């Protein structure tokens, strides 16, 4: 009887070792698949950001070429706004580390931060004396009739101060 129990215990221990090994292999396999999946998603996201960035730039180039402020294109005067300027230096990050509220990377001569209750996100905006921009970002201090224009050059941003300008939203709001 004792031999049978020892033999049974031996098989039981062996089967536990095999099952544990199988479980470890499955867990490792799932971890590897998760890492590969995450890596693939990261690549897809980077490509999406790149395409979105390129298409936004192309759109803004078309707007600038058509100069809708000189035509009967629908536009809404939203008033006089106080302008300020923000840079990666002030935020303590590089441009590659920054993302706007709309998910894009901020870009000079394109990105502005607005109060979304005044100017809808994604709007094409004309700022008199400064040109055409896309409302891609928001900011804690950007309330009411204020616009924060993204720039790369910190010294230039400081030198521009806080001017006021007439602002139009292209299309209807």
What does this structure look like?
This protein folds into 2 domains: 1-66; 73-170, Barwin-like endoglucanases (Beta Barrel), CATH 2.40.40. It is built from 3 helices and 6 strands. It has helices at 2-66, 88-91, 154-159, and strands spanning 75-86, 111-113, 124-127, 131-137, 146-150, 164-170. Strands 1-5-2-4-3-6 form a 6-stranded mixed β-barrel. The mean pLDDT is 87.
Tell me the CATH superfamily of the largest domain: RlpA-like domain
Please tell me the CATH architecture of the largest domain by its name: Beta Barrel
Low-confidence stretches: none
Structural class: alpha/beta
- Number of separate structural domains: 2
List its traits.
3 helices; six-stranded mixed barrel; alpha/beta; 173 residues
Short description:
Helices cover 43% and strands 22% of the residues.
Task: Describe the secondary structure blueprint for this structure.
Blueprint: H1 2-66, E1 75-86, H2 88-91, E2 111-113, E3 124-127, E4 131-137, E5 146-150, H3 154-159, E6 164-170
Parallel strand pairs: 1-5, 2-4
Antiparallel strand pairs: 1-6, 2-5, 3-4, 3-6
